[in-house]
Amino acid sequence: MLTTLNAQLRAPGLAALILRISLGVLFLAHAWLKIAVFTPSGTAQFFQSLGLPGPLAYLTIIAEVLGGIALIIGWQVRVVSLALLPILLGAIFFNHAKAGFFFTNEGGGWEFPAFWAISLIVLALLGGGKAAVTTD
């Protein structure tokens, strides 16, 4: 019976589906934050305050929207996961690292973006899973 239950709990295709949709929604939410709350020009100013080129903010927003949609529908999941990784590594190194580890620290630490980056790596290794538009 334990062997049967163990076999039933192994569902890597379903796990990949849940992970990719969750990550896709997170990317869309963060893009929406940059568009609706901070505004694209405000986001560009923030990027400049970190020493980054302002136009990189617009590219980041576009990547988050298109990448989020691609993950949700399951299009080129391995490639898209790896392509989105620099956004999170940039967030860690240019913004959150100075605030320490915990995301509850003032300025938000690097805990959450690091976990998000690791999740992208895991998804790149798993592939799109069930109901993906393209297979990897």
From TrEMBL:
Record localization: Cell membrane
Top-level taxon of origin: Bacteria
InterPro entries, sorted: DoxX, DoxX-like_oxidoreductase
Membrane topology field: Multi-pass membrane protein
The keyword Metal-binding appears for this protein: no
Record keywords, A-Z: Cell membrane, Membrane, Transmembrane, Transmembrane helix
Membrane-spanning parts: 12-33, 56-75, 82-103, 115-133
Family: Belongs to the DoxX family.
Protein name: DoxX family protein
